[in-house]
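Researcher: Here's a chain I'd like modeled. Treat it as a single chain, no partners, no ligands.
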Amino acid sequence: MNNRLKQISDHMEQNNLDAVIITVPRHVYYLTGFASDPHERFLGLILPRGEEPFLLVPALDAEAAAQASSVQRIHTHSDTDSAYEVLRGLLPVSLVSIGIETEHWTVSRFEELKSCIGVSRFSSVDELLRDMRVIKSEGEIGLMKEAVTLVEEVLRRGLQKVAVGVTEIELVAELEFQMKKLGAQSPSFSTMVLTGPASALPHGVPGTRKISRGDLLLFDLGVYLNGYASDITRTFAVGEVSEEQRRIYNAVLAGNEEAIQAVRPDVTCASVDAAARNRIEAGGYGTYFNHRLGHGLGLDVHEYPSVHGRNEAILKAGMTFTIEPGVYVPGVGGVRIEDDVLVTAGGVEVLTSFPKQLTVLEG
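Model: Modeled as a single isolated chain. Structure tokens:
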């Protein structure tokens, strides 16, 4: 924690910032260990230049912050206070420039902040925090592995409920029940179960569609555990599998494995995307692979980097992201196979271990 705060302090010195105000709740957790969803209330970690950092939290979170935060100086505001006026009273009198997460602030809240503290020069610290977060520590990797282990057990249990006539939303309910039962904080995104033709919708919404024999059945799910996300997709056949469904599946599996083999330090995100895309195109399904290969994974289920064909960002050891090629053929169905991977000094470690060979469920 102290090293992370020092990186921000060094950035302040190098860029002549008088203070930095961190308001993204996940960043507050990342820097202090205190996790909270303040809803509409103000939550902030404030780092005045040359002074001890402090938290400004809603009064109802004071005790939780004191127990969890590595930052010892904690101030509160009540629901009847203006949090920005309270903040103004806690900041040094003379301020010229402040760093903020510009991607997080709404216009109205920013205008209120600007009016209360009387500073006109603001700088973005979004890129600084992005670059800090993109390289995961051993501790973070351990937490992500735990989140992966949990979600894979959820999937194993959920598959036991698959049967002809069961609806997508019933399976979603079972999966999310198992998440809580096994100790997850929450799903890391809206759990997806899609059957039959609906599996050809990359962002389909589970509903009352019933599983039928001959369907492709797609599961996309993840959890938050100890603040870190997992994300996995597997696709199954129910009762029987057609030759076309098998061809689609094999093309996606080959693309997934080709991309994993392409991951190593000093290659680009674009080259990893191309490895999967070229293999799927060779299988005749390139036009049906209509999204990026993957996305960064960590404190957020979708974070930097975006793994697509035009991103020339260089992979480095410690990066974590998904590899999730998919082929979606209208009227036939879709297949997506998603793994979570870690870039290592020697290449790649696949964090997910759930079997990927085509499995036909009895139904």
